[in-house]
Amino acid sequence: MGMTSVKSLSKGYLPSWLSSFRLFINYIISFTLSSILSLLWFYLKPWVKIGLRKCTGLCELQRICYKTEKGAQRSLEVEKCVYSSKCQIVKTIRNQLDDVAKNGRFNSSNTREVVQLVENAVESICNEKEINPSNHPEFVTAMRICFLQIYGYKNLQYKINCLRNVPIDLNNSKHVKKLTKLWNSLNPNNPLQSKISSQWIEIGFNCEDPVANFRGIGLLGLENLLYFSINYTKNAQQILNHSKSTINGFPFASTGIYLTYVTINLLNTGRLKTHFYNSHFGTTCLEDFHKVYCYLFCALEHLWLKEKSNNENDLSFIKEKLISKLDSELERNDIILKWIPL
User: Fold this and answer.
1) Number of DSSP helices (H) and strands (E) in the chain, helices first
2) 63-93 pLDDT, tens per residue?
3) Is 129 helix (H, G, I), strand (E, B) or coil?
4) Residue 7 counted as domain residue
5) Do residues 127 and 195 both lie within one domain?
6) Cα separations in angstroms, 339 against 265, 292, 297, 327, 342
7) Domain that residue 142 falls in
8) Can you give the pTM of this predicted structure?
């Protein structure tokens, strides 16, 4: 046994416990170095910023705005800078804008207050950083756009989560009207017989009562399906027809509701920032969210047909593949989710 162990070691083979121990030591060393470097940067960063300010004559926000094109890269860097700033003026600005956005008031229907807040924010930053707006008009414009994008996104999160928390009620005439519109847009030649009907199962609901499918996603799930079916009727009807195929069908409505969950998750985790910051140089609204949802529905159907799936069990694999594809795409700072409606 002793000779075998010596020979194994001489040939480069290590016992499993020794290999594990070596990996553990490497991890500890790597973690320690990383922590030391992070700590050093924490203390050195203010001095580095002061040095750069002296050398370039520009503050950090100016350097970001001048070195990047408008869009995701610039707005993400500005957002990070604003939220990591220890400057009391910047803290006050972000708290004020956060309060407006997180209460659903940072939108186009409240233009006067939004414009005033943004102008005050940019003016306060210029005063604090000793920036003459007349000499740096590009910076002023860039900061206006960044603030509109950053807090417009937060406002959209508020709006979406409010809609999600509204349960669908068949005793609410407005909700019933929306459900009827959904049915009529998808099946114009086949009238709905009643609010609770087996007809709902034909378009992919799990049971005769469509409300059951919307539990947990609320009115938002219905609004998504309705927007898609009314504004992109040809696409919606084509996907519905494919979903009814006996060869490679899938539940249309249930899949659509699942995609609402996916879109909410992308929004709330910030992964949709790259898309919105590249495609909207102002505030975002509910319709912008709906359009991303429509893109996802069409992208899912494309993958489904491409994979030539033939049973509902394959749908989980297709969903995972779609999410993986989205995660990869949304990591890019130049991404805009585009699709061509029928």
Assistant:
1) 15, 0
2) 999 999 999 999 999 999 999 998 999 999 9
3) coil
4) no
5) no
6) 21, 10, 11, 17, 10
7) 58-164
8) 0.84
